[in-house]
């Protein structure tokens, strides 16, 4: 397949490829700049290894460096800037890279490999590389490390074919074309952000890059600029919804909707979106599938609030008959974990389906509802309880600003659900929370104990680390509400 960067330069050279509101490049300029930067990297001997690590914020500079690496025929090892030096060094060693390209303002003093700043690249001379005219669909375009909530992170290999098939399936579902402009405020070192970059190349679509999520800034962009799509996670959606309710502003006339991923959301929030005629499409996907592989369509969104939708055109999906685990086949699926084929093999069934580790159910029309991770499921007295469902029931509770539910051992019931809460009221009583839950949940799903906490432990990807909450309980580091 033609090199996507060069192809769009010939097909849509004058169209804007990337902008941050201040700096913009057309596809023709992107192709030229990518060639120049690749030659500069070559002059710095930064391309001797097939894999090149990148540590960056959401910036045009980081975007361009990533495009230069792809344009030169090399594989990006995406590093999460929120990780500790120890975590980053593990990934650098595991991926066997010898160079890390980094945004100048980031601290790389403790990294155990050669580091080259973006400014060093810009000031380098050019040493011509052979033109890389094709993207091999079976070649690794990128590697991203899993969040590592239950063990050492695994490097997920993502081929050009994986990215292409993900983009095609998404376009068929959402009707995205080159006329769209997709705002990227999610990190580009996560699949949610990088997939927007890759879709921009494949569709010939403008990507509007934002350095970080600030709800006031994003709101103004959605009102004033010709944005058509935005990817959000639940907390982003809630923040944007609150501002929209407060101001009464209408987004620009070209705006079509929000693609929601990154975890469960409560029904009340989705119903508020529906009342405000704010199109929200829920989706389901993972790093191993290069973003969403299940999603609602805009036409189905109102009738199936709470569902992640149906498998996209290129995705096959089934539920395990005994465990209800979600299993799938898709050409967007990663071919494996870097250097760990045995771990990837454990994720594949004997008949070739990928085991996601998530538990779900299908309604009569085939729409998927994701209950949660099988690792998080609580079995209490023979009943299955999913923390996400319990937390969603408390999402609008006036007594707490946030809640997290875990399962702990229990002599009578085998396990029981308990909750950690960040309170809104100083005089909060456990009975208030228990009564609130019993009005909305089956009695066995209501947490049996409530513990006060100031903030929740999250990993660098922002995912809740429930095992750390259990450790706090074991060490008596939290106070129980009476």
Number of helical elements = 15
CATH architectural type of the largest domain: 3-Layer(aba) Sandwich
Rg from Cα? 23 Å
Strand order, main sheet: write it out.
2-1-10-9-11-12-13-14-15
- By helix and strand content, what is the structural category? alpha/beta
Number of strand segments = 25
Counting structural domains, the number is: 3
Largest sheet: 9 strands, mixed
Shape: globular
CATH topology of the largest domain: Rossmann fold
Mean pLDDT: 92
Query: How far apart, in Å, are the first and last alpha carbons?
Result: 64 Å
Helix content: 25-40%
Low-confidence stretches: none
At the first level of CATH, the class of the largest domain is Alpha Beta
Q: What's the CATH H-level homologous superfamily of the largest domain?
A: ANL, N-terminal domain
| Residues in β-strands, percent | 25-35%
